[in-house]
């Protein structure tokens, strides 16, 4: 599906509801990972190697159409692995330190 431009919050809402995301954006790769949405990266490499190592991100390049389609069709949204970027509780821990100090 192709849509008109969306705001940042609108993009996040769309990413969170997607079945799979194809992107050449390094930021969207990580957002997809954090939303637990499979990602097909249309670049030849990524600095987010953790997303590839856990299987949630496939780096296929932008010109290999068969590889892009296969990665999108094979995407598994049922990933339940742990997140190497933390639990998402950092802000609560920071507030607790600030309030208790």
Can you tag this structure with a few keywords?
45% helix, 9% strand, 3-stranded parallel beta sheet, 101 residues, 5 helices, mainly alpha, Rossmann fold
* Number of helical elements: 5
Order of helices and strands: HEHEHEHH
Mean pLDDT over the residues: 88
Main sheet, how many strands, which sense, barrel?
3 strands, parallel
CATH class: Alpha Beta
Low-confidence stretches: none
Range of helix content: 40-55%
Domains (count): 1
First-to-last CA distance: 50 Å
Give the tally of β-strands: 3
The helix/strand class is mainly alpha
The general outline is: globular
In the CATH classification, which architecture applies?
3-Layer(aba) Sandwich
Radius of gyration: 16 Å
Topology readout:
Elements: H1 8-17, E1 21-23, H2 26-34, E2 39-41, H3 49-53, E3 57-59, H4 65-74, H5 90-100
Parallel strand pairs: 1-2, 2-3
Structure described in brief:
This protein is mainly α and 101 residues long. It contains 5 helices and 3 strands. It has one domain: 3-Layer(aba) Sandwich (Rossmann fold), CATH 3.40.50.2000.
Describe the 3D structure.
There is one protein chain. The chain has five helices and three strands. With 101 residues, the protein is mostly helical. The longest helix is centred in the last third of the chain and has 11 residues. The mean pLDDT is 88.
């Amino acid at each position: 599906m192709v849509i008109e431009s969306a705001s940042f919050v609108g993009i996040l809402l769309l990413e969170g509801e997607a079945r799979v995301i194809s992107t050449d954006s390094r930021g969207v790769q990580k957002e997809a990972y954090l939303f637990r949405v499979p990602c097909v990266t249309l670049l030849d490499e990524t600095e987010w190697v953790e997303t590839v190592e856990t299987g949630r991100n496939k780096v296929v390049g932008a010109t290999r159409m068969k590889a892009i389609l296969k990665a999108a069709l094979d995407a598994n949204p049922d990933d339940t692995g742990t997140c190497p970027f933390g639990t998402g509780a950092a802000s609560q821990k920071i507030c607790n330190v600030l309030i208790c100090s």
